[in-house]
Amino acid sequence: MKEHSPLSTEKIISDLYPKKFGRIGRVWTLFLVIVCLIGAYAYYRQLRYGLVVTSLRDYVSWGIYISNFVFFVAISLVGSLITAILRLANAKWSTPLTRIAEMIAVSAIVFASLIIIVDMGRPERLVYIFTHTRIQSPITWDVVVISTYFVISLLLLYLPLLPDLQILNSHPNRNTGFLNRIYRFLGAFWKGTREQEAINNRSIIMLCILIIPVAFTIHTVTSWLFATTYRPGWDSTNFGAYFISGAFLVGGGAVLVAMYLFRKFYGLQNYITYRHFDNMGRVVVMLALLYLYFNVNEYLVPAFKMKKPEEHHLEELFSGKFSLGFWFAIIVGMIIPMFILMFKKGRRPYPAFWAGVMVVVGAWFKRYLIVTPTLLHPFLPMADVPESYLNYFPSWEEWAIAMGSLAGVLLIITLLARVFPIVPMHESITENDAHQEN
Amino acid sequence: MMHTRKIDISRLIAVIALCMPVMLCAQDSSAPAARESLLYLKYQLKNNRIPYLQVQTKSKEGKAFLPAGNVPVELFLDKDSAAEALIGKVTTNNLGEATIWIPGSLAKAWDHASDHTFYAQAKAVKNFDAVQASVTVIMARLELDTAAGSDGRSLKAKLVKKEGESWVPMPEVDVRLAVKRLGGYLPVAGDETYTTDSTGSVTGEFGLQHLPGDSTGKIEVVARVEENDEVGTLETSLLVPWGEPVVYKSDFNKRSLWATGRKAPIWLMLIAYGCIIGVWSTVIYLFINLYKIIKLRSQA
Amino acid sequence: MEDNLSSRRAFIAGGLMAMLNPGCSSGENSIQPSGEKVKLLSVDGEEIEVDRAFLKPVPDLPPLSNAEERVGIKGKKFVMVIDLARCKNVGKCRESCNHAHALHPDHNWIKIYQMQDGDHTAPYWQPTTCMHCDSPPCVKVCPVDATFKREDGIVAIDSDRCIGCRFCMAACPYTTRVFNWEDPGVPEPLASQHYSCESSIPQKKGTVGKCDFCPDKVRKDELPHCVTACPNGVFFFGDMIEDSVTNGTETFRFSELIRDKAGYRLMEDLGTKPSVYYLPPVDRNFPFESGLPSTQETTTPH
Questions:
Q1: Residues of chain C falling short of pLDDT 70
Q2: What is the pTM of this model?
Q3: A159: domain CATH number?
Q4: Domain check: are C180 and C222 in the same one?
Q5: CA dist., res. A291 & res. A286, Å (int)
Q6: How far is residue A237's CA from residue A297's CA, in Å, rounded to a whole number?
Q7: Which residue of C has its CA nearest to A133?
Q8: Each residue's pLDDT tens digit, A340-395
């Protein structure tokens, strides 16, 4: 609840300047690299022997690679939420969070693309999607939208970064030689003139407006990978809105986690304040309520009817094989965080962090429950197949690759945080000056 | 009708078939305990012109009959294994089947005889023992023609076999009258069976109403004597205009959600490409803006 | 009538080339003479010349181009009728299909399900192939045109195009598609031959496979492997345009068979428009129990 005391520009710059890794930073990065390398080795095995190294078989032909894909696409929507929607809504408090959001968005969308390629049986034929395009296929739509969203998110990370690059370029002694080269390459042309600022601000506003429909499209199209099939649990008209609301929730949770960690490890207490946790916490409560609403629609309505193909599926989710995961995802992923954040005391950094963690972990299980159980309830009986086809638990290679992709996302975020200021410097200075004038 | 252009004998080997319809299974008693190698030889004659032989090699393992593929078989005309009587050599395919026609070079040996015996010798190969089979066929003709019936559509078939220099009718032989369809023969009148009378003839009414034919309404009717002990399998066909003309207009070239990419529905292409062009024009505009910003670097 | 006979003879003689080709049920078959003649013996002891292309079976049909395989056999619309009253779960259909297509041992393109629609309804055996739907959900979702609908109704797979995304497997409500998770172990010489969409051989690692209605056999006027392998004549295959289906022994008019035996299609209400019809298990040839594994003798040492 502390209001930050008036700061000088110099203090702001030195607080927000990208810092070298301390011991924790180095250990953390090393850990992520190791996890990535283990994942890479598992992928090598998969390339060599085929997807048989996974536990995927003819019935559960989509497993944690696809649920990871959906999870990453969902998280990447945080960029549009924080950066675009809140910015357009003039929620000035969100400004320090925009870069974190964009970093998360860019890394998540990169690994969403990579994990999809990992899931392909013939990755060397990826180019066929472009040479033998079928515009009728939802996968084609997904490829187009993901590429588009990646470019837009990258621009939305880069353009507001330009004024900060100017600051970084004006302190060459504080940067390593390598970083100086990067900063100069990326931003030496930015002089901060009025014309440049005018064009840049216009571009940023356009991006913010553009990214919202693209973000909606990306997750709607991803949901259509399931909703365009006939299967119980997937054959729902609710899916587009259901996925998007889920995406905003998990993005909000991820931001809470990132806010706390960056604040703690980079000493950003003056910039990511109690007020930010308070506001972000309220946003997450609202998103959780919205997602809970869609979940009720998604599960209660078919349960009322209990159509034959859905009967077995719903029973397994509510009280059968998947009930533990299902209720965990609902209670721990939505309800408990909501209760924590409903109270003022809960919207302090530490409890908010845990609420965020619960949201993210619950969301991961939720995505798994969207993908796998349906595949175990086909219309026709499961017959004339080996035992191993009748259920699914990911193999070590799948876990390694999935964890590797998560580690990869965290690694990119960590590296981006090393290279670029986590909280926008230029905007903080501008707002501080405006604040001091009042 | 003798055409004497040069032909390559070796090319004929795969294509000559003359055989009696009698199946002779030769069993090899020295086969390993559960496995028997079986060789079947059948004769077929189409349209009273070209005769051919069908060879089938099978393995009996326990109670199961499995096709034995890639078995070389030699076939001979009227003599067990003389080189001058060689009809040809074939190798059965993966399903254990082979067909062979008789080369024109054996015309003299054929010699207008009233019957012929065909010999097949399968060579021993991996998983298949050497086995022999033979079949004796009396030369016969099956004639098919339309006849005036009660409602104007009737078929008449006549079966004669060669005895010395003359053709004698064959009574008491089952003949099928049918329409040739994909993979099978559709009977012209339900469950009716036809057996030749003392003159070797059968008559059958064509009972199929509104049967689809080709684009002009023609259908191929067929008379068949199947695997007769004396004369083999004979099939004679005839094109008659007793079907309905059919021209199939498929949906293949229509635009649809399941057609090839270039035949997507127009509404989908408009929406999809419209969105893509709209969004990407904006993105390109933004890159142009960035370029403008870069260009303004020289200003103080 | 004499003059009728001679004109018929002339007709036959003129159509001799087409007559020799058993796949020709009309005069319009598209077999092209290859120009290469062979000298054969006629039954009258004469040497006659016949164009090589018209002999059956044509030993080396020129390989079809990918474009031709994607169009299919024109003028035909293939359909299958499965008589559930005759099925006793012998499994020869499944076995011969697996063998003919050199599938991975874990895979079955034909699956025989033990069905019981409701608690008090009759149990029955249901062999299920790909339905070759006229509104195929699998084809709709393929991003690279690796699975496609042909003019003759067959939905085929091009294993040289498939990227292994398995969206088609998720989309198929009949769960008829299988995926080559590892190398399927196709024996030589099949393994090195060029992949044909019509024979679906050789199956390839990382791609999808399914029943293909055996177009390579149908082109030669032969029936798919399952049809000929079934000892009880359960499978009927044919051409809807010709209005005829056959199990090799019996041939029926398709329209009459469906009408008289009340044929139906699976999951009709999904709107997939399948090409496989089922005849209900009425007046069964065998009791359901005779198909249970405990009562079956094992016949094949496969």
A1: 1-34, 53-61, 295-302
A2: 0.88
A3: 1.20.1630.10
A4: yes
A5: 9
A6: 11
A7: C144
A8: 999 999 999 999 999 999 999 999 999 999 999 999 999 999 999 999 999 999 99
pLDDT digits (tens, 9 = 90+) for C142-151: 999 999 999 9
Q: Chain B residues with CB inside 8 Å of A141's CB? A: 272
Q: Which residue has the higher pLDDT, B252 or C265?
A: C265
Q: How far, in Å, are B157, B202, C10, C13, C179 from residue C6 at the CA level?
A: 15, 20, 6, 10, 59
Query: What is this model's ipTM?
Result: 0.92
For chain A, the domain total comes to 1
Cβ contacts of residue C292 below 8 Å, gap of 6+? C89
> A59-73, A232-246, B87-101, B285-299: lowest mean pLDDT where?
B87-101
**What is the tens place of the pLDDT at every residue in C20-40?**
443 333 333 445 666 777 788
Per-residue confidence (pLDDT) for residue C89, from 0 to 100: 94
Instruction: Note down the domain range covering C25.
Output: 2-54
Q: Which residue has the higher pLDDT, C56 or B148?
A: B148
Residue numbers in C near B248 (CB within 8 A): 75-77, 241
Range B9-138 classified under CATH 2.40.160: no
A131 domain residue, yes or no: no
Angle of helix A396-419 relative to helix A98-119, nearest 10 degrees, comes to 150
Domain ranges of chain B: 9-138, 140-240, 261-290
The answer on C170 and C49 residing in a single domain is: no
User: Contacts of residue C179 in chain A, CB cutoff 8 Å?
Assistant: 51, 58, 61, 121
